[in-house]
Amino acid sequence: RKEVEQDPGPFNVPEGATVAFNCTYSNSASQSFFWYRQDCRKEPKLLMSVYSSGNEDGRFTAQLNRASQYISLLIRDSKLSDSATYLCVPNTGNQFYFGTGTSLTVIP
Amino acid sequence: DTGVSQDPRHKITKRGQNVTFRCDPISEHNRLYWYRQTLGQGPEFLTYFQNEAQLEKSRLLSDRFSAERPKGSFSTLEIQRTEQGDSAMYLCASSSYRDTNYGYTFGSGTRLTVV
Fold first, then answer.
1. How far apart, in whole angstroms, are the C-alpha atoms of residue A79 and residue A60?
2. Which of B56, B103, B106 sits opposite A95 (nearest CB)?
3. What would the pLDDT profile of B51-65 be if each residue is shown by its tens digit?
């Protein structure tokens, strides 16, 4: 089983829509989690950290379900600038395993 | 600029040549990581250092790859006898041991093309 699995998409949503991505992880010892955003041909940038059951930052909400070993990212009121690839990353302590990412395109 | 810097940004080399990339982490970060990313994939872990010690290497890091961080500051990644399959973006990231819960900060990467 892969360390991290994400639906690669692509997700094409209209501006203003709400979209959610799921990510499953295999290492039950993971204590914290990250969502990174990566624009085309750019480096990943940290979007959100999750340490307990979830985290909310403006239009972005991350929720963690430890029993089922998945983490989700919800984006409300999507903007054109949200178009990117979203990478799920469980923190196993020494290094991060990145998922393949979920591609989002917000359409005008 | 206090971010992670990588040099060069782009490198085109002929198959069989050796290449070396440099990474300068954020100055107060004692952990430094190398990742490789190919199109459509997430970053794949290669190796990481805590200070000058190389603590873990991925099986992806064949004997043609070597990384150093001699003084616990900047790091180099060398690829010997490059192959076309080495074409990828090589990403460097750094973090503070005490603040790993805050994630990594990545550099802009070095894009390698082997022709």
1. 12
2. B56
3. 999 988 887 788 999
